[in-house]
Amino acid sequence: MGSLTIGEISGELIKKTCSIAMAAHKSPEKPYLVQKSSEVLISFPGSWSVGDWFTQQPFGEMKIDGSELLCPKGNDKVATSLRSIGRDELASVNKGFLTRFEMILAKPSLQTEVEKAIKEKKKIVFTGHSSGGAIAILATVWFLEHYLKPGKTLMSPLCVTFGSPLVGDFIFNHALIRENWSNFFLHFVMRYDIVPRILLAALSTMGQELDQILKLLSQKAMFPIQGSVREASTFYTSVMRNASAVASHAACRLMGNTNPILETVASFIELSPYRPCGTFVFLPGHGKLVVVKNADAILQLLFYSAQLCSENQLNAIAERSLNDHLGYPSELQGCLNWQNVVQLDHLEGLPLSSSDAAAGNIATKIALDDLGLSTRARLCLRAAGEHEKQKLSNQQRMDNKMQEIELGLAKLEEYKSKSALCKVGYYDAFRISKYEDDFKANVTRLELTGIWDEIIEMLNRYELPEPFESRKVWIELATKYRRIVEPLDIANYYRHAKNEDTGPYMHKGRPRRYRYTQRWREHGLRMPVGSSAESCFWAEVEELLLLYRTADPGAFEVIRERTINLERKLDEWIRSNQISNDVFLKGSSFTKWWITLPLQHKSVSPIQGQINREI
């Protein structure tokens, strides 16, 4: 019988990580333990203090812009990967866990260990049990953000946790999948272990029970203790009630429930923002391992696999929910020896019952039964599978529109070339719109707008696969589209004097389709935020023209700094072929304005030579 492997992780490595993860509890005075062999294992101890789990009501989360570790500051820095790119919405993580990790990293020893392992070309495995697992997750993300750079050869890290609470929200998981980091995370969860479910509940709903349970778990981590049934039952009931609300709300969304009552109820009930990330391995007992990668399905399993079959089971299951949290070493020993692994994929075809002969294989049916999943639970898993399948279908539909986009852009390129022959750039030709070609260009612009607005709307609703925004083929097509078409949108905006009612194009008028796709390129090429604004060149020109015309005669000082900044950027964009030379044509409104500027300014301008060549 061969050795067991889950993803990239061998059964032997899983045993080693579990051993050091549990051992860290016995050395709480140490910020982490290190074990070196062919890999470098770094294990973090858990914390049994409520203050380390919840720093604030109701769920203790914070946006990552409050952390220099996960969200570097400064205009010259690349934006964090832990965000939705197009929406530019930052992920949230548990503040208490992040604070603990920041305290560990404040001392140079961990960073020294990591960089030594990198230099020795050894794989780093971050691990932890209980809230130590949460610290391991954040440590892995920190490593990925700071060390795993494009074009840099580096051994990927691993994160293996046991009974870890959830750490981040939906966007946190979305970003890990998009960056292709999700496969680096492997989380083991015993069927009834209450700890991975705790952060699905608000602190206010658990009262004093959380403090009591954490103290009990702390004592149990050192030696067996009895007499915890009453506290465990109250706590289990509270957590599972909250988990039910979160799972039900998520399932309604997966099933396409558009009833406004759903949102109304959600506005009155505090629902946890935390969501699973990475691969989960559920341990239902009987030596089995059930592997799940779909985050929506994992959320449902966290509730349904620990659900009571009858009220008579409450005390027994509640006590087991604590004992399971400390049972990983013994349970994994049996599982890894038996090598009984079931992958729960193709969720949309899962059997709805043990007797459902039309769906699933025998191993899958047995695994679902071992997890105690009801027909309702299986329907929720099917909905998660269908949702994932629909996102892939949406992506294929958009991929099929690529040729249509390319044809539209080719028409506008031809329009641009014709305009240049008349010594008037296509921006000014379109702004005036006197001829039939201008009308045809507008029709093409509107057709392309319809396609891109559909794409952006689907992204806004998270109806496309997570990696869509980082696919090179779409980044390149979107950049080409933005550079050709956005100047026409700007021309249309100022031609109809929309700035008089709405304000400057860049402040109020710029459509999401351009803001989203600019961020795609900046993220894909790891560029500083806002540095790929070449398609907005004409918007700045229009605003400078308005200021210059309304200023007192000769009052160039009003716009000097903005003009110098624009000239510097334009010179860079021209040299890198991000903007074409037609902006310098004799009939260009930019050229006509520029030649009226003071001679002293023009004589030192970086674009002087290029304008002189064109006119």
UniProtKB/TrEMBL annotation:
SUPFAM superfamilies: alpha/beta-Hydrolases (SSF53474). GO terms for molecular function: hydrolase activity. Residues 80-199 form the Fungal lipase-type domain. Residues 410-606 form the EDS1 EP domain. One of its GO terms (cellular component) is nucleus. It comes from the Eukaryota. One of its GO terms (biological process) is lipid metabolic process. Coiled coil: none annotated. InterPro entries: AB_hydrolase_fold, EDS1-like, EDS1_EP, Fungal_lipase-type. Keywords: Cytoplasm, Hydrolase, Nucleus, Plant defense. It holds the Pfam family Lipase_3. It is found in: Cytoplasm; Nucleus. PANTHER family: PROTEIN EDS1-RELATED. This is EDS1 EP domain-containing protein. It comes from Gossypium darwinii (Darwin's cotton).
